[in-house]
Design a protein that fits this description.
It contains eight helices and 15 strands. The chain is an alpha/beta fold and 294 residues long. The chain has two domains: 4-144, Rossmann fold; 147-279, Rossmann fold.
Length: 294
Amino acid sequence: MRSLVLNFSESEDLGKKLSSILNLERYSIESKIFPDGEVYIRLPVSPENRKVIIIQRLYPEPNINFIKLLLTVDACRDLNAEEIVVILPYLAYSRQDKRFREGEAVSLKTILKTLKDLGVKSIITIDVHKPQAYSLEGLNCINIEPFDEYARYIESNIGDCVILSPDYGSLWRAESTAKRLNVLYDYFEKTRDRITGEVTIRPKQIDVQNRDVVIIDDIIATGGTIVKAIDILKSLGVRNVHVIATHGLFIDNADVKIIKAGASSITCTNTVINKYSKIDITELIAKKLRQIIT
C-alpha cells in the first residue's frame, strides 16, 4: 500500500504541501487537551501495513507537542504500521547535545532514543544545531541543510555582501552559504580582557566598512548574540545588516530587539511559523522523502 501522511494542526500547511508534491494521502490527527492537561490522540485512518509519515512542529509548546508525537507514534506501531518516518522541522531539545555539567540529562539523545524505542525508523529535521551529535545506532537521522535556499534568497534580495557567523561554532553555515555565492565570509571572535573580564566581539579578519553584511545562524531564541553582533557591526561602519536564521523562535520579542538594534531585515524558514518565514523548506523535505519511502 502507498505511504500515508499524518499531520497535526500545528503542521497542517507542511502536510498539505508535502502530500500534494508527492501525491500521497493525507489526514489530520485528531488531538485535544483535557482540563487536567493530559493529551488525547486519535488516528483518523488505519496505518496497518502502510508507511506512515508523521509531521510535527515541536515549537512552540515543545513539551505538549512532543507528548502528542509520542502517543501518535505508539498508536501507529500498535496498529501495525509497516514503517514510521517522523518529520520534525525544528528539533527541540537539540541544543543540549552533551553533558555540560555533571548530572545533566542529554536531551537530544533522550529524544532520539525514545522515538527509536517506539518504533520510528527515520527522523528528518532541518539544520540541526550540531550535526555531529545528531545520530543514534539503529535510527536513520537525516539532517537537511538549507544553504542552497539561503544563497538563492541572498542573490535575489540582497546581492553582494559579506557573510558572518555569530561564533566559530556556526562558521560552517556561513562558509557553506558564502561558497555558493562566491563571497567573503568570517565569524565573530570573542576576546576577554584579562584584567576587567570584559568580553568583546568583532569580525576576526574581514573589513566590513561600507559593506552589506548577512549574519547567518541556525536558531534565534532571545536574540542577545545577534543584537550584540549588530552593535559591533554598526560601530565598524557597515552599510546594512541582514539576519538569516533557519529557526526563528523570537522569545520575549527578540525580533523587535534585533530590528531596534539596526537590522535591515530578518529572514527565516518555515520550520517555525512567524512573519519572517520567507524561505520554504517543503521541497527539500519532499526530495529527501522520495529517497526513503520509494
